[in-house]
Amino acid sequence: MRTIPTKYGGYLRVWEKGESGNPKGRPKKIHPQFTTTQTYKMSEINDTIQYIVGMNEEQLQKVIDDNNATILEKTVANALRKSLSKGRLDSLETLLDRVYGKPGESVDITSNGEGLNNKIQIEILGVKNQNED
What we know:
Largest sheet: 2 strands, antiparallel
Radius of gyration: 31 Å
Structural class: mainly alpha
Strand order of the largest sheet: 1-2
Oligomer: single chain
Shape: flat
Strand content: 5-15%
Order of helices and strands: EEHHHHH
């Protein structure tokens, strides 16, 4: 690799032909025993969130401290506990949106409570006819 000064005061690194910018190659994948573990089904995630959202702070702390609790349970419980301690509902809103979906948003397109007029009127202003002079 060689370095070439640029006109703005920096340097540009240029690889020689055949030289690799990543001599160690691509990182190896995770050990196979970790890739064959059971994954969560969407229904299991939703059920877990619904169950944990109904807990009080003491119950959330018990889930966090429980060595037999799954990572999913601990993660959801910890996110809710942190949100509660900060007085913010971001995590709760995200979790509920995950389970129940975002509420539909509607926009009322009216004019003072009346329906819009379906007629469109176009008025062209400021156009002068050359023959009018």
